[in-house]
Specification:
Layout (H helix, E strand, L loop, with lengths): L2 H12 L6 H20 L2 H17 L10 H20 L13 H13 L2 H12 L4 H12 L4 H8 L3 H22 L2 H8 L1
Length: about 190
């Protein structure tokens, strides 16, 4: 998936070959759906957001200037579509209190997670991320799972890279709070001693 390859299809679509859009949809549909699901936390809503996202992308394809990666632009459209959907439905976020963690406590959580089997760890993180507010889950997904840079995420959410860094830090703290509450107490006690 290169930007040059994306630009080729974008140019075909702009020139009138609307069938070329299916290539871009196939390329990005899983990504858009997974990001939408992280934010709206409902499969049907995520499917609708995905559909709305691709309609918006198609209608505004001429506005894509190519100064960033096409994937970054799609992230941004997905993000904004999710925010619109959440506002429309007046959903309430799950607020997780942020405790002040010492470096030792955060390290303890990391050590406890490393002790789990890989599948258990992945499942634990996925379960806990579902409990995060939509924006936090979205940012963590882009940074850790989609491996987007701070600058790329900043373009998606319309903030500075420093603001994204602060939000990521807070999101990680919230996730740490949830993980600490959900991990087996024996594991944590083992690593704290």
């Amino acid at each position: 998936m290169t930007t040059t390859n994306d630009l080729y299809y974008i140019n075909l679509i702009i020139e009138g070959n609307t069938n070329a859009f299916s290539v871009l949809v196939d390329r990005y549909k899983d990504l858009v759906f997974s990001l939408a699901l992280k934010m709206v936390k409902n499969r049907e809503e995520a499917e609708e957001v995905s559909q709305d996202t691709f309609i918006k992308v198609f209608k505004s394809l001429r506005q894509f200037k190519g100064d960033s990666k096409f994937s970054t632009w799609i992230y941004k459209v997905t993000y904004n579509t999710c925010l619109d959907r959440l506002k429309m439905n007046k959903k309430f976020y799950n607020d997780v209190p942020i405790d002040e963690f010492t470096e030792h406590q955060v390290k303890t959580i990391d050590n406890a997670l490393e002790a789990m089997e890989l599948e258990e760890r992945k499942q634990a993180i996925q379960d806990c991320m579902k409990l995060l507010p939509a924006e936090d889950a979205f940012l963590l997904t882009l940074f850790y799972f989609e491996e987007q840079s701070l600058e790329e995420i900043a373009k998606v959410v319309g903030l500075t890279a420093n603001n994204v860094k602060v939000k990521l830090f807070r999101s990680r703290k919230k996730l740490t709070t949830i993980l600490k509450e959900r991990l087996e107490p024996e594991i944590i006690e083992y690593y704290e001693s």
